[in-house]
């Protein structure tokens, strides 16, 4: 986590930097400044390099609240922690309205500073996971399982996590194809089926738009996987026949490949 510190008092900045490193040893103090203007000048010269600005409220030229307001209005991804000697509701209310991550009152305790930084770390992790899932979903639209397996980067991204969780175990590749994917997705029964299979057999499910192909990597006994797959196919297909006219699965093809890692 890369952090800037803003406070008009030199020794206060140095003391806060020391406290930050005690609370979060992996943090990097990228700079400390006397006011918000200096912070913005640094950010302009070093875009996308800072995760957190830890700023005092009272500073000359541009105070902490106006700095937070500017970053908020610019829709910056930088998190702001306000540090203040004023335990007043109005300051806190303004800080919250500017999207400030936390409002700490001096003297700041190491534990509350650690909690504030950990809260930001958790939020960043959730955001990164969400972005990664979106990117994975978009990427998969244009690939096939053969292309993923043959490309080192894609293989590490999509396949290695599931194989690491099941190291040394036998896996099976299940391929399900249907002509009528749009109709199938109307009640999401197909998605529920494949998610259930993936969870049951500690595997992973991919859908490739280009081939309208569902691919599951499953771990377990061959007979158990085949039996569960056939049972769920019959159950879900019967349910869809009650909800929709005709067979919403279209044509289903199933191939099970017995392969050793």
Descriptive overview:
The protein is α/β, with parallel strands linked by helices. The chain has two domains: 2-134, Rossmann fold (3-Layer(aba) Sandwich); 142-259, Alpha-Beta Plaits. It has ten helices and nine strands. The chain has a five-stranded parallel β-sheet with strand order 2-1-3-4-5, with helices on both faces. The chain has a four-stranded antiparallel β-sheet with strand order 7-8-6-9, with helices on one face. A hairpin with a 4-residue loop joins strand 7 and strand 8. The protein is elongated, with a radius of gyration of 26 Å.
What is the C-alpha radius of gyration, as a whole number of Å? Answer: 26 Å
Strand order of the largest sheet: 2-1-3-4-5
Gap from first CA to last CA = 38 Å
Indicate the CATH class of the largest domain.
Alpha Beta
- Could you give me the name of the CATH homologous superfamily of the largest domain? Response regulator
The main sheet comes to: 5 strands, parallel
Mean model confidence by pLDDT: 79
Number of domains: 2
Q: Bin the strand percentage.
A: 15-25%
CATH architecture of the largest domain: 3-Layer(aba) Sandwich
Large-scale geometry: elongated
Q: What is the fold-level CATH name, i.e. the topology of the largest domain?
A: Rossmann fold
Count of distinct strands: 9
Task: Assign a percent range to the helix content.
Answer: 40-55%
Give the low-pLDDT segments.
179-187, 241-252
Report the structural category: alpha/beta
Please tally the helical runs, counting DSSP H or I stretches of 4 or more residues: 10
H-E string: EHEHEHEHEHHHEHHEEHE
């Amino acid at each position: 986590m890369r952090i800037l510190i803003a406070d008009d008092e030199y020794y206060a900045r140095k003391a806060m930097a020391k406290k930050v490193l005690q609370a979060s040893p992996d943090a990097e103090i990228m700079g400390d400044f006397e006011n918000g203007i200096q912070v913005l000048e640094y950010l302009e010269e070093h875009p996308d390099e800072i995760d957190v600005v830890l700023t005092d409220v009272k500073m000359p030229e541009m105070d902490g609240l106006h700095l937070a307001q500017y970053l908020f209005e610019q829709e910056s991804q930088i998190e702001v922690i306000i540090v203040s000697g004023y335990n007043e509701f109005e300051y806190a209310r303004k800080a919250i309205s500017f999207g400030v991550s936390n409002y700490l009152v001096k003297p700041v305790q190491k534990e509350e500073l650690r909690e504030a930084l950990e809260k930001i770390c958790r939020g960043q992790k959730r955001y990164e996971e969400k972005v990664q899932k979106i990117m994975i979903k978009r990427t998969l639209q244009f690939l096939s399982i053969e292309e993923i397996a043959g490309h080192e980067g894609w293989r590490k991204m999509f396949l290695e996590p599931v194989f690491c969780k099941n190291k040394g175990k036998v896996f099976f590749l299940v391929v399900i194809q249907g002509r009528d994917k749009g109709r199938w997705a109307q009640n999401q029964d197909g998605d529920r089926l494949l998610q259930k299979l993936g969870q049951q057999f500690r595997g992973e499910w991919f859908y490739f738009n280009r081939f309208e192909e569902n691919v599951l990597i499953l771990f377990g006994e061959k007979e158990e996987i085949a039996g569960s797959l056939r049972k769920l196919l019959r159950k879900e297909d019967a349910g869809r026949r009650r909800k929709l006219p005709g067979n919403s699965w279209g044509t289903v093809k199933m191939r099970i490949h017995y392969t050793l890692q």
